[in-house]
Amino acid sequence: MALKPARTRIAPSPTGHMHLGTARVALYDYLLAKKTGGQFILRIEDTDLKRNVPGSEQGILDGLRWLGLQYDEGPDVGGKYGPYRQTERREIYSQHARILVANGSAYPCFCSADQLEKTKQEQMKRKENPHYDGTCRDMDPDEAARRMADGQAYTIRFRMPKEGATIAHDHLRGDIVTENKQLNDYVLLKSDGLPTYHLAAIVDDHEMEITHVLRGSEWLGTFPLHVNIVRAFGWEEPIWIHLSVFLKPSGKGKMSKRETAAAIKDGYSIFIKDLDELGFTPEGFLNWSALMGWGVAEDDVMDLDQMMERFNIDHLTSSPAAINFQKLDHFNATHIRLFSTEDLGGRIKPYFIREGLNVNDEALLKIVPLLRERLVTLDDCLSFGSFFFKEDVIPNPDDLIAKGLDAKQSAAIARRMYEILLAQSDISHESCEPPLRVYVEESGLSANQVFGILRVATTGQKVSPPLFESMEIIGREKCLARVLKAIELLEKL
Ligand code: GLU
Question: Which of these three, 242, 277, 312, is where a domain ends?
Fold first, then answer.
């Protein structure tokens, strides 16, 4: 059965770095919209001016682009439901606040911040949950109009029903029933004329014809309010989906600032801006995030198209997901193995360049098949393969000494190998391996001893991709120079 085209939105506030939580909502939004032939929208919720952080909107745009979650409408691409930045939609919210005041669902409140704070302190002393005490709720409309005309500052509050209960339906959690007397008269429009999240998000979701609201479970507390606002306007509700929370890697408690700081020390991050530098791929990261909160088999490897194929909101789950960075490694490594040689070459090249190395594209394409199986993160290409592009390598002299031998003996072996290599007009797997193997036979040494010296001499490291293939890529001149250098180092010991 064809699904109705969905319009979904990611609605981040530009208050800090874009993180895993936002990325996962964006991913599910994207999948649902694309799967149904609908649209995925980016809306910037920037009405809490004090909390806005310069540069974070750009971080969101860059993050979504890096992840490959291209939105159909948004502040920088436009669209017919714009503007897509809430501070540019003020008039829309005040108009809507007036509609609610006119139909009795909201009222102006003239209580000052000091007064509200005092009430709050008293309520806390009485061990009550802080809530608006209703001072202005039943103010005579003429009195309210007079105060407004006098220029008194006011907010607009929602008139929450006092009796009965609100039933709010979440697609994953079912009906959530809340006694209305537990609910507060929340502020919808602040005294600076800007809306709170509660009004702005509800109005925009309606105006932008959003069909499915996917968001974090931190909004469950005010979910009954949101449902009441939609109903006060007489609008149809979207399908609401409050996603699962992320728990610390230990599984105990929510992911905290401290855990986040600890992760970066271990080479992981929940901030999208860090992922590229840490060597994670969008494919690996998205696959990992997708499965936290989606009931498919835990190690299903999927790219965006395959996820879209299988995505179904009925399979999302509300159970908390513990962050497991080893799984992120697993998905990253798995996707790296699936990239074509050219694709992977293009992805690792920037890491070499950032290290100041001169990358030869022809060599790069030869290196990729040697490295691919060894990479967990893309930046691992450096520890396994920077020797390919370095002018010289500086081995640790002690590493040049073969097991069971001394420096002098090792130097003699290196010299013999130098002569064998020098006799070859080119250095390739085919040309070098046979004469070197003959030499191993004659010497009575083990291949490990002999080739260990050659490996450290030519690559500068004890672990490397296959030796002869590597030497072929390094090239004859550099190999010879490196072996000579190794002899020199050994002879100095
Ligand atoms: N601006 C809200 C936030 O950043 C968005 C919540 C929602 O998706 O409705 O948490």
Answer: 242
Q: How many structural domains compose the chain?
A: 4
In angstroms, what is the span from residue 131 Cα to ligand 1's centroid?
Answer: 23
**Statement to judge: residues 230 and 106 lie in one domain:** yes
Are 99 and 230 in the same domain?
yes
Query: Is 257 a residue of the active site?
Result: yes
Question: Which range of residues forms the domain containing residue 148?
Answer: 89-242
Q: Is the pTM of this model over 0.85?
A: yes
Judging by beta carbons within 10 Å of its beta carbon (0-12, 13-18, 19+), is residue 368 exposed, middle or buried? buried
Give a yes or no: residue 67 inside a domain.
no
Query: What parts of the chain have a pLDDT lower than 70?
Result: 1-2
Please identify, among 389, 420, 455, the residue that sits at the C-terminal boundary of a domain.
389
Task: Give the per-residue pLDDT at 1.
Answer: 54
Task: Please state, in angstroms and rounded to a whole number, the distance separating the CA atoms of residues 122 and 144.
Answer: 26
Q: Which of 257, 265, 462, 492 is catalytic?
A: 257
Residue among 28, 41, 60, 197 to mutate when testing ligand 1 (max atoms within 8 A of CB) = 197
Amino acid sitting at position 178: T
Tokens matching residue 108: 């102006």
- Report the CATH number at residue 298: 1.10.1160.10
Per residue in 85-136, pLDDT (tens digit) is 999 999 999 999 999 999 999 999 999 999 999 999 999 999 998 999 999 9
How high is the pLDDT of residue 2?
Answer: 66
Q: Compute the distance between CA of residue 25 and CA of residue 201 in angstroms, rounded to an integer.
A: 16
Asked if 41 contacts 7 with a C-beta cutoff of 8 angstroms, the reply is yes
Is the CB of residue 29 below 6 angstroms from any atom belonging to ligand 1?
no
Which secondary structure element, helix H or strand E, spans residue 106, and what is its range? strand 106-109
Give residue 128 CA to ligand 1 midpoint distance, Å: 28
At residue 3, the pLDDT reads 76
Helix residue ranges per DSSP H, 126-176: 141-149
184 near 109, Cβ under 8 Å? Answer: no
Mutate to test the pocket of ligand 1, among 29, 42, 45, 227 (most ligand atoms within 8 A of CB): 45
Longest dimension (CA), the chain: 109
